[in-house]
Amino acid sequence: MRKSLAAALISVLALSACGSGDDSSSDGASAASCAPSSGPVSLTYTTWIPGIENVVKAWNDKNPNIQVKVQTGPNGNGGTYQNFFNQLKAGNTPDLGHIEYDALPSFRVQDGLFDVASCDIVAKAKDQFIPWTWNQVSFGEEKTAWGIPQDSGPMALFYRADLFEKNGIAIPKTWEEYAAAAVKVKAAGGYITNFSQSDINQFAGFAWQAGGRWFANDGQQWTVNLTDDNTKKVADYWQDLISKKLVSTVPPWTTEWDNAYNSSSAWTWVSAVWGANSIMSGAPKTAGKWRVAPMPQWSAGENVAGNWGGSATAIFKNSKHPYEAAQFALWLNTSEEALALLNKEAQLYPATTAGTKYSYLANPVEFYGDQKIYELFAEAATQVTPDFTWGPTMTSTYTSASDGFKAAVSGQGTLNDALTKAQTSTIDTLKSQAIPVKE
Amino acid sequence: MTQTLTAAPEKPAPVPASTGRAVRHGRAVPFFVVPFGILFVLFYLLPIGYAIVQSLYTVERTGTFGPAREVFGGLTQYERVFQDGAFWTSIGRVLVFGVVQVPVMLGLALLLALLLDSGLVKGRRFFRLAFFVPYAVPGVIAAIMWGFLYSPNLSPLKPVTSAIDFLSADLVLWAMANVVTWVYVGYNMLIIYSALLAIPAEVYEAARLDGAGPWRIAWSIKIPLVMPAIVLTTVFSIIGTLQLLAEPQVFRSFSSAVSSTYTPNLTVYSTSSIPNFNLAAAFSVVLALTTFVLSFVFLRITQRRGDA
């Protein structure tokens, strides 16, 4: 018994020694190099883009020496980020990973990402991207980039044209009109929308539009501000709709949620451009009945859009072939061939300036009654204010806010209570990670 | 199943005989012990040791994006654990869950085992299998299936679920208790049933000669004799209750009432996805200790009663 204990102890000590050894070496390896490899290379890429296999196949067919193996998983906060964090800890990340803009700081703070700006091909491509999307991967710094922008998520109002017309309800142009329409929709037996209680990103998009700014980083320390006046205004607005039971509150991204749209119980969805795909796959029975209009405004006559999501293709620090990974990521996110495929498979909206002008984006979309929806999103993309900064522990911020939002839709507390709690818990999380934060 | 059962609770093993044999088969002992020993160390002691080591570290960094350095932090993480109200609330929650669910489940298991053993039912083999089948359904699948059954809009039992919201804050804990009971009642029944089968027939004969009816035999002979099996299943259930993860994790997407810190293991999970592995390790160690203490206390109480 004593012997086995000693053996266990020795191995534990050995293990922890390995652990600290790894850490010190990773401290030193910050000088990144991005040189081409010799010989054939095979890369791994993890993402959750629907239909990505077909896009990657197009690359593999043409690049026999750089073969990409794609692994698909659940959406980021649904599990893939946790896998990435675990893989980082274990040192076996894929070469490339799909990371949304809001999660990039979390991965950077965990020292998991390769600085792609050190690859000359990426540095040269910088100007191809819409400035604010580049800003999301460079965090406003001159010579760094923690991923290659893939898409953006300008928001607009998806609505059931048939139901609005049948009931003589005007399409709301402002949030005030939207709330008024909610009352009429309820009277007609529906809900104007489903409030996303556990996916906080949508709410973040609302706050973004209203001028809320949740995080700031002055280089010395972070400032957390989940409860600024603009965010509070948005929270009060939705709390009012929830309290009056004018919106349904089924959990998002579930069968029940699909059902709410498919069964015509929910009439609108203020969502990002990629949401076009969610409705098409989740509510096939409603084909042809949806249209898209600009996002409702806080003041009549304004033209401000929020942004929900948008992703980068990041290269993990452990990748042995960052140069080839960057080549693939650039092709994936800047070439007309790949962008057209990504749009066809997943309704992604490109992050490059040239991409927004490609002809396929002018095509009418059958599901939306042949409306040219991407023209509308192209306009929304120009109305997104570019200076939104994400915090370095978004997983925790979202989890905490979502706990509170879920309580609020069950009648315990309000959305603003939830944000206040998320504010405290975010600051606690930052402190427990030794990330400097202003209290 | 019978082997583990009879091996664990039956104390009065013939000690001298076994030591005698151990000497004669000296070489065979390591042969049989080493494979187990290696796996035990690799997949049990090492992870626990690693978690303990991790829990003693804390992170330091400079600047807003400075790389993290792990430094020895003593009991810093444990200080956070003990200050974390949500964690202790969740321990209280699973304890309430256990106090109600474990007796109900084991009572049902005992009842079913006695019924199968009584000879009153026909098709004993069929029922034995039928009761056990839910255990063969993976826990996550079972939770998803019940989640849909409870769902107010998608359930096939919509008239019931739209009247009673099983996924509301008041009921969701008991909705999960039902899932856990459904999955594990057959498993526990099988353990108790095999203990019943191990009771020698002479005991029943003697009881019948003394004029005991079926009720009396069940109450005064069967139940006391399978008590060790019941104690064993109770300990398993206490451990299982404190470590509830699959059901609440699945129900998070069905119900607004299940938060990210609903059970202790969910707290560990969401802490590790921040990612804050050190704090998650400290949570795990405290949870393991709590489980150990509770199981130990329960065993002490039941053993003392047995001695008296």
TrEMBL record, chain A:
Signal peptide: 1-19
UniProt entry keywords in alphabetical sequence: Cell membrane, Lipoprotein, Membrane, Palmitate, Signal
Gene3D superfamilies linked: Periplasmic binding protein-like II
Keyword Lipoprotein: yes
Taxonomic superkingdom: Bacteria
InterPro entries: Bact_solute-bd_prot1, SBP
SUPFAM superfamilies recorded: Periplasmic binding protein-like II
Cross-referenced PROSITE patterns: PROKAR_LIPOPROTEIN
PANTHER family noted in UniProt: ARABINOSE-BINDING PROTEIN-RELATED, POLYGALACTURONAN_RHAMNOGALACTURONAN-BINDING PROTEIN YTCQ
Protein's name in the database: Extracellular solute-binding protein
Organism expressing this protein natively: Paractinoplanes lichenicola
UniProtKB/TrEMBL annotation, chain B:
Keywords, alphabetical: Cell membrane, Membrane, Transmembrane, Transmembrane helix, Transport
First-listed, main subcellular location of the protein, grouped into a coarse class: membrane
PROSITE patterns associated with the record: ABC_TM1
Domain of life (superkingdom): Bacteria
Membrane topology term: Multi-pass membrane protein
InterPro entries, A to Z: MetI-like, MetI-like_sf, UgpAE/MalFG_permease
Compartment(s) of residence: Cell membrane
Domain ABC transmembrane type-1 per the UniProt entry, residue ranges: 91-298
Transmembrane segments annotated in the record for this chain: 31-53, 94-117, 129-151, 171-199, 225-246, 279-299
Gene3D superfamilies, A to Z: MetI-like
Family: Belongs to the binding-protein-dependent transport system permease family.
The name this protein goes by in its record: Sugar ABC transporter permease
Species assigned in the record: Paractinoplanes lichenicola
